[in-house]
Every structure is written in C-alpha cells, then in structure tokens.
Design goal:
The protein has about 190 residues and is mainly β. Helix content is about 5%, strand content about 40%. It has two helices and twelve strands; from the N terminus they run E-E-H-E-E-E-E-E-E-E-E-E-E-H. The chain has helices at about 15, 180-185; strands at about 5, 10-15, 25-30, 40-50, 60, 75, 90-95, 105-110, 125-135, 140-145, 155-165, 165-175. Strands 1-10-9-3-7-6 form a six-stranded mixed beta sheet, with no helix packed on it. A six-stranded antiparallel beta sheet has the order 2-12-11-8-4-5. Strand 9 and strand 10 form a beta hairpin.
C-alpha cells in the first residue's frame, strides 16, 4: 500500500484507505532554520474534542506534561527538545478502538515553546510534516507536508483525526495561531492557570 500525500484542507478516509487500522501512530517532524543561534523547542499535543467543539475537561489535553488520556486511548511518546535528526521528532499513539464515543475529533497541534520570548515562529521552521502510520503493520497511510509560510505564528494545528459516521478520517489542517498555545487552548476550552 502506497502512502497518500495530502494538501492543506484535504481529507482522507483512514477506514477506507486501511480497513485494518486500529492503532495509529501520528508522527510529526520539523527542522528549525538556524537564524538567531537560540535552540527551537517545538512541542506536539493532542486535544480530544467533543461534539460542542471543546475538550470535555483539561484531561483531554495530551502533551509533554500529561502524556496520556485517562483511558490510554491517546499516548504522547515524549518531548523532543531539539528537533535534531531525521524522521519523526515527536509521536502520538492513538488506539481508535479505545477512543470514547463522545470524542468526535482528535486535534493535533505543534507549538513553539517560548516562541514570543525567543522571537521564533513557524516562518523559521522548514520541512514540517504530519503522517499517520498503522502501528501494527508499520505502513504509512497518509502524509501532509506543510508548505504554508506562517511567519508570525507560534502555534499551528497540523491535522485532525475525526469521526464521520462509522469511519475515521484524517484532515490536513495547517491553521496557524499568532497567539501561541494560549490561543489554541482558549479556542478549545482548556482552562489555563
């Protein structure tokens, strides 16, 4: 099975592309351009979203300080603080069979830690991508290479995996936020201290 490559805004039925898919690995990668000499620390996160477009509670925000959802359906594999090396910089595992019925979407985001303080943004990041791999077969199903110039933005929704009836689908989103993690959190109902 050859992987499909999507453009911004396009969708793919994961269920139709890989009917055996149960456990998905979402791999995210990026390479910072060297501009100021200050290290980039990009962080991947997943938000479990209900029918109202919001998280059910802060427990639905999966990131480096809360590595898995309450029932283990979504697991963050840990923080990569440098983005060094080839391949995935961070990975999020999703067991689709365990995702609660009231979760309609799993939104995948990447934010630049201390982006404002360090004067860093996605305009200084290149070769960003998001891909979905069947964990059981290790076959890549779909890939989205971000090509947008997001010069002022310090956070971005890369993609989402969502329900469509009995199907699971993937959407290449590529939506930037100049308000960083706080902007995404506010939009999806996370309560920050």
């Amino acid at each position: 099975m050859a992987s499909l490559s999507l453009s911004k805004g396009h969708n793919l039925s994961l269920t139709k592309a890989d009917p055996g898919l149960k456990r998905a690995m979402v791999g995210l990668g990026w390479d910072p351009r060297t501009t100021s000499g200050t290290d980039f620390d990009l962080d991947a996160s997943a938000l479990l979203i209900g029918a109202d477009g919001k998280v059910r509670s802060n427990d639905d925000f999966i990131f480096y300080n809360q590595l898995q959802s309450a029932n283990g359906s979504v697991i963050h594999q840990g923080d990569n603080r440098t983005g060094a090396g080839d391949g995935d910089d961070e990975q999020i595992l999703i067991d689709l069979s365990l995702v609660e019925p009231d979760v309609q979407r799993i939104v995948i985001t990447v934010t630049i830690d201390q982006g404002d303080e360090r004067r860093q943004n996605f305009g200084q990041v290149r070769d960003a991508f998001c891909r979905v791999v069947n964990e059981d077969t290790q076959q890549e199903i779909v890939r989205y290479d971000l090509t947008e110039d997001a010069a002022a933005e310090t956070a971005m929704i890369f993609s989402e995996i969502y329900r469509n009836g009995s199907e699971w689908k993937f959407r290449a989103v590529g939506q930037g936020y100049s308000t960083g993690l706080r902007g995404i959190a506010t939009d999806f109902g996370i309560i920050l201290d």
